[in-house]
Design a protein that fits this description.
This protein is an alpha/beta fold. The protein has helices spanning 6-24, 55-60, 87-93, 108-116, 144-152, 168-175, 178-195, 212-228, 248-251, 255-261, 285-295, 325-335, 364-377, 395-404; strands at residues 98-103, 123-131, 137-139, 156-157, 160-163, 199-203, 232-238, 264-268, 304-309, 311-316, 319-324, 340-341, 348-352, 357-361, 383-387. A hairpin with a 6-residue loop joins strand 12 and strand 13. The longest helix has 19 residues, at 6-24.
Length: 405
């Protein structure tokens, strides 16, 4: 949905400022994470595995005290009727591509970003929920002001559910048991209904290939239940260039079945090099092209979303620490380093401490290159899914606006 809502933005910004004065700013000291919220740290993973960059650290930056616990293109038959398009969704589908953003942090600055860029944003995925070890949904609304900002800006609110610690076993226990599977679907529907969400984003990663069929069945049944209520289903999937993929987590996802069931098929086209690999570009353009080309053979491009990284890593050997664009620039200045642009990925890179540290990160020019790839080679892809909200280059939004003109 691309709209001119400057007056609305000003009004919502005034509300946000009042919230800041009241002590709701993300700059305030954070309360302890509640016992009901997932606090499991992701276990170290093999190269080219999970997409989420230091998720536990990112989630710890949120205001952690839950304040509450409690659209679509044509689709094949079999998963419920296509939900009726709302005016905002209809406007979005008429644009060149839609834009969503995963929000592990939703403080005052992040709310300002959502507000200032509501004219090019369509959907926000707050990281407020996780699948617990017992099969229940843990977490709650962690920033009611952010939720209000998103709604008043007209964004589709589709929070994510993550399998805590990227634990495959907790997903396996749910999807392989018909009773637990039905209960999990009922819990998701109740969560959406209680909070007035527009749908749900399933981000279950690093699954066991043995659970491939059971996971597909879960998504198909969830899709049918959501569409019966006119709700949206989004899913995050690992990038791969063939059905088997390069590792078990990618093999566990049957793109043909998942893509047929969901409304938004978001491919995590990043972490080609990651926190447990050697240093290198996070999303080389030729690899992204290959992933999207394969996707087009099994999933309708009109449902496919290209994942967009706006973060970076600081590597020491084969271990990388995530950082955002702002932190990368500050580090380069502190170390007297001059970032150089890699032509194969469009990303920036520099080294310091006699080469013991190597940094790769993305900026607005990087994103412009990714959008050019999308326009030139994959013009029918539905949208882009940005990871993550917070600390990104403001020029990213100018690049998106330019691509939508």
């Amino acid at each position: 949905m691309k709209r001119d809502n400057r007056l609305l933005q000003i009004l919502v910004l005034l509300v946000a400022v009042i919230g800041l004065i009241a002590g709701c700013s993300s700059a305030q000291p954070l309360p302890a994470t509640p016992e009901s919220a997932s606090t499991n740290l992701p276990a170290p993973m093999a190269a080219n595995t999970a997409h989420v960059t230091d998720l536990a650290d990112a989630v710890a930056d949120m205001a952690a005290e839950p304040e509450s616990t409690t659209c679509c293109r044509g689709r094949p038959t079999g998963y419920g009727p296509t939900p009726t398009l709302t005016p905002s969704a209809a406007a979005a589908s008429a644009s060149q591509f839609d834009v969503s953003i995963w929000a592990p942090v939703a403080g005052f600055l992040e709310q300002q970003t959502l507000l200032a860029n509501a004219d090019v944003l369509d959907e926000v995925n707050f990281f407020w929920y996780s699948l617990g070890a017992g099969g229940g949904i843990e977490g709650g609304i962690m920033a009611s002001q952010a939720l209000q900002v998103a709604r008043e800006a007209g964004l589709r609110v589709v929070p994510s559910i993550v399998n805590g610690g990227f634990d495959a076993q907790r997903v396996s226990l749910v999807v392989n048991d018909p009773v637990r599977r039905a209960q999990h679907i009922a819990d998701i529907l109740a969560l959406i209904d209680a909070n007035g969400y527009d749908g749900i984003d399933i981000d279950y990663e690093s699954l066991d290939p043995a659970d491939r069929d059971a996971f597909s069945l879960f998504v198909e049944e969830l899709a049918a239940a959501l569409h019966a209520e006119g709700k949206w289903l989004s899913i995050a999937v690992h990038a791969k260039t063939d059905d088997a993929g390069a590792w078990g987590g990618a093999a566990a996802q049957d793109w043909a079945r998942l893509g047929a069931a969901v409304d938004a098929f978001k491919i995590m086209t990043y972490d080609y090099h990651n926190g447990v690999s050697e240093a290198g570009p996070i999303a080389p353009l030729d690899w992204v092209d290959a992933v999207l080309s394969y996707a087009a053979t099994v999933v309708p491009p009109e449902k496919t979303w290209m994942g967009v990284p706006v973060y970076g890593y600081n590597w020491t050997g084969a271990r990388g620490q995530s950082l955002n664009w702002r932190q990368a620039l500050q580090l380069a200045e502190q170390q007297g380093a001059q970032p150089q642009r890699d032509p194969a990925s469009g990303e920036l890179t520099f080294s310091y401490d006699d080469g013991r540290h190597t940094v790769w990160f993305s900026d607005g020019e990087t994103l412009a290159g990714r959008l050019a790839l999308l326009r030139e080679k994959h013009p029918n892809v539905a949208g882009i899914a940005i990871w993550p909200l917070g600390g990104e280059d403001p020029a990213n939004w100018a690049a998106i606006r330019a691509a939508l003109e």
